[in-house]
Amino acid sequence: MDVQTTFLDRLFQSGLLIDTGVDGLYGRSGQFEDVIAAFERLIDKFGGADGAEAMRFPPGMNRAFFEKSGYMKSFPQLAGTVHSFCGSELDHINLLQCMEVGDDWTKDQQATDIVLTPAACYPLYPTIARRGKLPMSGGLFDLQSYCFRHEPSQDPARQQLFRMREYICMGTEQHVTDFRQSWMDRGIEMMKAVGLDVTIDVANDPFFGRAGKMLANNQRDQNLKFELLIPITSVAKPTACMSFNYHQDAFGAKWDLYLEDGSVAHTACVGFGLERIALALFHHHGLEVKHWPSKVRQALWG
After folding, report:
1. Which of 80, 110, 161, 273 has the fewest CB atoms lying closer than 10 Å?
2. Number of folded domains that form the chain
């Protein structure tokens, strides 16, 4: 049995995660949720004074916005759509008959106007674009949402439905790159406060197909994405628990995000994988919070 499965089994046995029968789809115990809540308070401690506007979007987003985002061009393998029954009474009878004999009852389901949110920031850009031009001082936003990515795995740190906390900065190139660097420094400080050894390394998103390889190489060559890595299920392949991304003016151009002087806004974000950070804490400090080092408990619960 590999290390990933062993850690997952321990999480199930302790009740911290609850097995649903689907890889990457888990319930969470009250203790697990308490750790996430405590870490979010730590995020607030480090970033609260920045004055970000808080927003909370649901785990589903407008399909038209999703299509405009271009997500399917780059990550079709990760996307999730919401389908529903839209048929007649006869169609319903046929559906039930299919279920009774074990046939595929989903084939006649139709796509709705909702897709599963792939990243917490995706609903933000059209929302801000509708407001009009941004001030020259830019904009700063605090988001948290459940996100979906279709990559079933028995690695507990690679879940299909998970929560992402993000700060998104919009403004000039200098403004947003300074924002990203400040959070890279803060990220290291935060993890030191909770007793986790980390490294930061250049990274790329999992772009799809041959063209995706070129996009990934360009992303790495331009240092557009960095990840804060923590060993959870593998020392050789540590897990990305935070990411620091500079999008240049890509989202600004796509969503018509302009500054007061008419220039296209640049954007950057810092993302916290909340389940992954909680798992890192349980892996490194043990499955019983009461036995964690006092300095760690002090940093999280005061």
Report:
1. 110
2. 2
Average pLDDT score over residue span 233-253: 94
Closest CA to 81 of 31, 107, 121, 115: 115
Q: pTM for this one?
A: 0.93
Residue showing tokens 């759509």: 81
Strands (E), the chain: 17-22, 25-28, 53-55, 60-62, 81-84, 110-116, 139-148, 161-171, 199-202, 225-230, 239-246, 266-273
pLDDT band at 5 (very low <50, low <70, confident <90, very high): low
Let me know if 204 is exposed, middle or buried by CB neighbors in 10 A (0-12, 13-18, 19+). Answer: middle
Q: How far apart are CA 216 and CA 213, in angstroms?
A: 5
Answer whether 276's CB lies under 8 Å from 157's CB. yes
Rounded distance between C-alpha atoms, residue 148 and residue 120, angstroms: 10
| Domain assignment of residue 225, given as a range | 3-80+118-301
Q: In terms of domains, do 96 and 8 share one?
A: no
- CATH label of the domain that carries residue 135: 3.30.930.10
88: left (phi > 0), else alpha (psi -120 to 50), else beta? beta
Q: Specify whether the CB–CB gap between 272 and 230 falls below 8 A.
A: no
The answer to whether the Cα torsion of 40, 46, 48, 52 is positive or negative is negative
pLDDT at 297: 97
Placement of tokens 């009461």 in the chain: 290
